[in-house]
């Protein structure tokens, strides 16, 4: 609506005016994805190396439920718990 040759005048070549909305949309996408990636990296760095919260874990096919810290203590091996994180 605002990107018409009458409004823009001779500031931009006429063929570029037709592509301008798509180029601006692409620019917004790239900028926002960079910002989101930086925020996600900062949030992830804040939680790396911290203790996982103690919670009850139940396994499929087993009736027992065990607390996370008890599971780690009984295994006597390094344990990696992967929590899904979506920003």
Topology of this protein?
Blueprint: H1 5-8, H2 14-47, E1 56-58, E2 65-67, H3 68-75
Antiparallel strand pairs: 1-2
Number of strands: 2
Average pLDDT over all residues? 82
SSE series: HHEEH
Beta content: 5-15%
What structural category characterises the helix and strand content?
A: mainly alpha
Based on Cα principal axes, name the global outline.
rod-shaped
Distance between the termini: 34 Å
How helical, in percent, are the residues?
40-55%
Radius of gyration: 26 Å
Strand neighbour order, sheet with most strands: 1-2
Stretches where pLDDT falls below 50 for ≥5 residues? none
The main β sheet shows up as: 2 strands, antiparallel
Number of helical elements: 3
Walk me through the structure.
The chain has 87 residues and is mainly alpha-helical. Helix content is 53%, strand content 7%. It contains 3 helices and 2 strands. Strand 1 (56-58) and strand 2 (65-67) form a beta hairpin. The longest helix is centred in the middle third of the chain and has 34 residues, at 14-47. The relative contact order is 0.09. The model has no long low-confidence stretch (mean pLDDT 82).
Which keywords apply here?
87 residues; mainly alpha; two-stranded antiparallel sheet; 3 helices; 53% helix; rod-shaped
